[in-house]
Every structure is written in C-alpha cells, then in structure tokens.
Amino acid sequence: MVVPHWCNDKVEMFRSVVKDEYAKLMCEEEMCTLVNDIHTANPAHFVTANTDEFVRDLLRRSLVADRIGTIIGNRTAGSKTQKLRMIGIDPKEIVWITDTSSDVHYGQEANVGMIIGTAFNWSVHGKTILKADYPDLEIANTPKELHDILKEIAY
Question: Helices marked H in 78-138 — which ranges?
Fold first, then answer.
C-alpha cells in the first residue's frame, strides 16, 4: 500500500499506539490456568490465522510459552486442515478448540477426534452462528466451561 506523504506522521503515530497496546496483551487468567492444566497431560498446539510470533509473544508475556508445543500460523502455507496434519499427532487424538464455523469444517476435514466450539466474549462467531451451522457441536461459553469439558474427557 502506498501512503501519501502527508499521512506519514499519522501512520507512524498509529503504529506506535498499536505497538504499545499490543505489548499489553495477555491471556486471560482463566485461559492461562487452562493451558497450565492441559500441559500436565498433553502439550497444547496452536493452528492460528495469526502469525506464529504474535501467538508466541502473547503466550510469553502470559508466562505459559514453555507449555506450548507447535504453533503453526498464517505464514505456513496450507489450509488449516493441512496444518492440523502437520502437528504430527494422530488426528483422532486431537481435541480441536475453535470459535469459527470454518474451523469446525477444517477439523472435520482433518478427521480430528473431538471438536469443541467456544463462544467467549472475544470469540469470532458467537454461539448462535456456531449452533446454526453445527447444531450438535458442544460449545463452551467461558474458559471455565471449556476447562470443565476438557477435565471430563481427561485431557
């Protein structure tokens, strides 16, 4: 994108504000607890539309980066179905946790063992959209509900 020269100051100001706000991002406490608990039995792996660096930095700032296995982000070529297969785990052993209908589809395509939808306050698709597209999908409305579901299946 070409930015007109008269906008340069505004662009630089925007970049500095975004950079400062980005540096403050952390996992919510309940999500950090969840990652810590999952790690005791299995590493958590991420397939994300974000960059690997964004996710790794967020997890590092949240003090859970050492509990994470693979992070496959948007700079790795392939669909999320292909990326799920890149993790190197038998797909039937994967519990795919997602907040979008398209990701549910990718999980089904990859033949993962279990798919759990999330309808947290920061989720992309809410419960209404997920249930409309996938009526039988188990959905967690809070990180605690997700934690409880994972405890039930003895992650």
Answer: 80-86, 101-110, 127-133
